[in-house]
Amino acid sequence: MPSGTGACDLSKIAAVSGKSLVPEAQLASKVDGSRLTVALGGAWTAETAGAMEPRVASLIAEGGSPQSVLLDFTAVQRLDTLGGTLVRGIEMAFGARGIPVQREGLSQAAAAIYAEIADGLAEPAPTPAKPKPVIVQGLDKVGEQMVEAGRDLVALVSFFGEVVAAVGSIFTGVGRFRLAAVVNQLDRVAFRAVPIMALITFLIGGIIAQQGIFFFRDFGADTYVVDLVSILTLREIGVLIVSIMVAGRTGSAFTAEIGSMKMREEIDALRVMGLNPVEVLVLPRLMALVIGLPILTFIGNISAITGGAVVAQFYGQIPIDIFFTRMQEEVSQRHVWVGLIKAPFMALIIGLVACIEGMRVKGSAESLGQQTTASVVKAIFLVIVLDGLFAIFFASLGY
Amino acid sequence: MADYASGDIIISVRDVAIGFGERLIIDGLDLDVHAGEVLGVVGGSGTGKSVLTRCIIGLVPKRRGKITVFDQDLDTLSRAEHKAIERRWGVLFQHGALFSSLTVKQNIQVPLREYLKLSEPLMDEIARLKIAMVGLRPDAADKFPSELSGGMIKRAALARALALDPEIVFLDEPTSGLDPIGAEEFDTLIRTLRDTLGLTVYMVTHDLDSLARICDRIAALADGKVIATGTMEDMLRHPHPWLRKYFGGERARAARVKA
After folding, report:
1. pTM (2 decimals)?
2. Are the C-beta atoms of B97 and B146 separated by less than 8 Å?
C-alpha cells in the first residue's frame, strides 16, 4: 500500500492538535530589499479558500512591482487543489507582470498537488466569445423563432402524413390495428377523465347561467338564459373547455411518455425490431383521442346544461322543467352537431402536437420539461385558432 | 478536517443489517476501510454491494448496526454535522448522475456554489483544473451531459465528485460500460488521483481487471456478510465456493495473466 500522501499527510500535526482543529490559513507579506516574500501558513483548503480569496486579491493589487517574489510554503500544513489554485493565482498575477516567482518550503505532498494544479491549468483559459450587441441578439432570437415556427408547421404536416401512411398500412394489411392499445388509451384518455370534465363543465355552465340571469333580469328576459346557456355550450364552450382540458391532461401525458421513451432509446428499439413507432405508439393514442374527445364533449355538454339548469332553478327561480321545455322549443339539433363535429378535429390537433413534441425530446430532463410545456401551449393555441376557423366557416354557411 | 495517517480506519461498519420488506439483504456485516487505500467491493448481483454503499452515504436506512465515518457515528450527528461530513466525501454514481440541464462546468460548480463563497473567476479556474485532472479536454467544460460519450460522462462525474477535494470517494462500478482501453485509463486515473490527492477510494466493481490492477484490498460480499477481505492473492486462496468460482473462472484467469 502506498503511503498516504497528499492533503492528508500531516498526521503528526493532526495528532497533536486533534480533530477539533478549526482550519485557518495565514497569509503575510513582507518586502526585503527588492524582493517580496509571501509567507503562507495553515490550511489552504476548500474551507479557507472563500476567506482567503479577497486577501489574495488585495495582495496581488498592493504587491507593487518588486524585482522578484518568493512564495514561502514552509508553514503550510494542508494544501488541496482549491487552496492551491488560489496560490497559483498569485504566481500567475506576478508572472504576468514579468516578475519572477519562486516557491520554497513545499512538502512532498504539497508539491505533488501543486504540480498537478500547474499541469492542469497549464493551457491558457479559452477566451469566451464576445457577446453580440443586444439588438443583434434580439434580432437573432426573432429570426430563430420564425424559422422554428416554420419548421413546426412542416413537422406537423409531415407527421400527419406519417400518420395517414400508418393508417393506410393498416388497411392494406402491412400494419396491424392494435385494438388492445386503443382500448387501453381510451380508458386513460376518456373514461378516467369523465369526473373532472363533468365537474369543470358543470361549473362553467352554472357560471354562464348566473351571469346571464344577472344581466337579463334587468330586461325581464330571464328565460333567455336558457338559450344563452344551451347554445353557447353546445356550439362553443363545451368542446372548447373539454379540448383545453384534454390538451392539458392528456396531451402533456402523451408528450412526457413518448419523450421519456425517446430519452431511453425505446423508440429506437422499436424501430430496429421492425416496428413503426407511429403505428405502435402514436396511432392508438390518436384514435383514442379522436373517439374519446367527442364522447367527453357530449358528456361535458350535458353536464354544463345541467349546471346551468341547477343555477337557473336556485338563483334565477326558473324551474328545471320550464328550463328544459324552453330548451326543446328554442334549441335546434344543429347546435349539437356544430359542437360535436369540431371535437375529432380538436383531438387530432392535440394528439399530433403532443406526439411530435414527444418525439422531439432530446437527452436531458430539461428538454422533456420544455417539450411538454410546448406541447400544451401549442395544442391549446391551435385548438382556439381552429375553433375560430370553424366559427367563420359555420357563420358563412349560415348554419 | 481531521487528518488520517495512511492505514487508519476511516470508515467502520459494524453489525449492519439492511433490508427491504421482509427480506434482509445485508445481515450482520462488518467492514473497515483504511485511509489511503483503494478498496474494491465485489459480490454477485443482488448481494447488496450497491445497497451497502448507499447505506454508508446515507441514501438507504439501515435496520441495525453502526457506521462510523471519520470516527463519527453517522446516527448521532446533527444535520449540520452530517452536512459537514458529506462534503468530505464524493460519490461517483454508476451512470454518472450528472445534472442533465447543466453543462459539465456548471455540474462541477454545484458543490462549490453550495458550500463555498468563491468568486466566479476562481470557480471557473477550479472547474478548469478539475476537468484537466480527470483527463477531459478543456472544450468539454461547456458541453451538456447528453453531448458526452459514456467515458466522458464518468470522467465529468468524477470531476464533480472531486470538486471539494474530498478525502473519500465512493465509486459505483466506475468502469462498467467502458471499453477496455477506457477502463484501463480510468483505473490509472483513479490510482494517480489517489496518489496525488491522498484519497481513500471505496470502489464497487465487477471488473476483475480493475480489482487486480488498482485495488489494495478486496472485500467480498456474499450471504449478506463480508466473507473475506484481503489482497488478490488472499482471494485466490480463499476456500469459499463463490470466491473460487468468481476468481477461478476463465475471465479471472485472463485478468491475472494481464495483471
Report:
1. 0.69
2. no
Which band of pLDDT confidence, cut at 50, 70 and 90, is reported for residue A88? confident
Q: Are strands A68-79 and A35-44 parallel, antiparallel or unpaired?
A: parallel
Q: Tell me the pLDDT tens digit for each residue of B4-18.
A: 667 788 888 888 888
Cell of A382: 391551435
Instruction: Identify which of B37, B100, B116 has the shortest CB distance to residue A1.
Output: B37
Place of cell 500567475: A92
Question: In this structure, what is the dihedral angle of CA atoms A8, A14, A18, A21, given to the nearest 10 degrees?
Answer: -70
pLDDT for A347: 96
CA distance B179 to chain A (A): 21
Q: Please, which residues bridge with residue B42 across strands?
A: B220
CA atoms within 13 A on the CB side of B45: 0
Residue B8 near residue B25, CB atoms below 8 Å: no
B259 touches chain A (CB under 8 A): no
Other CB atoms within 10 A of residue B241 CB? 10
* Nearest residue of chain A to residue B200 (CA atoms): A4
B203: nearest Cα among B104, B90, B99: B90
Does the pLDDT value for residue A21 go beyond 60?
A: no
CB contact under 8 A, B122 and A366: no
d(CA A104, nearest CA chain B) in Å: 19
Q: Is A261 helix (H, G, I), strand (E, B) or coil?
A: helix
CA distance linking residue A120 with residue A309, whole number of Å: 77
Average pLDDT, chain A: 86
Cell numbers given for A204? 362553467
Q: Is A354 helix (H, G, I), strand (E, B) or coil?
A: helix
B108 and B160 in contact (C-beta within 8 Å)? Answer: yes
Looking at residue A226, its pLDDT comes to: 93
- A47–B128: do the CB atoms touch at under 8 Å? no
CA angle A209, A298, A213 (to 5 degrees): 5
Q: Do A84 and A52 form a contact (C-beta atoms < 8 A)?
A: no
Q: Which three cell numbers stand for residue A168?
A: 393506410
CB B146, CB A362: distance < 8 Å: yes
Which class for B137: exposed (0-12), middle (13-18), buried (19 or more C-beta within 10 A)? exposed
Q: How many angstroms separate the CA of residue A91 from the nearest CA in chain B?
A: 14
Strand bridging mode B225-230 / B217-222: antiparallel
From start to end of chain B, where are the E strands? 9-20, 23-34, 38-43, 64-69, 72-73, 89-92, 168-172, 200-204, 217-222, 225-230
Shortest distance, CA B9 to any CA of chain A (angstroms): 13
CB proximity A108 to B under 8 Å? no
Q: Which three cell numbers mark B143?
A: 458541453
Q: Does A87 touch chain B (CB under 8 A)?
A: no
Contact call for residues A251 and A353 (beta carbons, < 8 A): yes
CA distance A68 to A112: 24
Cβ–Cβ below 8 Å for A49 and B115: no
Estimate the crossing angle of helix B150-161 against helix B180-197, to 10 degrees.
10
pLDDT of B198 strictly over 70: yes
Asked whether the beta carbons of B142 and B104 are under 8 A apart, the reply is yes
Mean pLDDT in residue range B175-186:
82
Residue B71 contacts residue A19 (beta carbons within 8 Å): yes
Nearest chain A alpha carbon to B6: A4
- Which pairs count as long-range contacts for B107-112, CB under 8 Å and 24+ apart, including other chains? B107/B145, B107/B156, B107/B157, B107/B159, B107/B160, B108/B156, B108/B159, B108/B160, B108/B163, B109/B163, B110/B160, B110/B163, B111/B87, B111/B160, B111/B163, B111/B164, B112/B163, B112/B164
Tally C-beta pairs within 8 A across A and B.
140
Residue A126 contacts B where some CB pair is shorter than 8 Å: yes
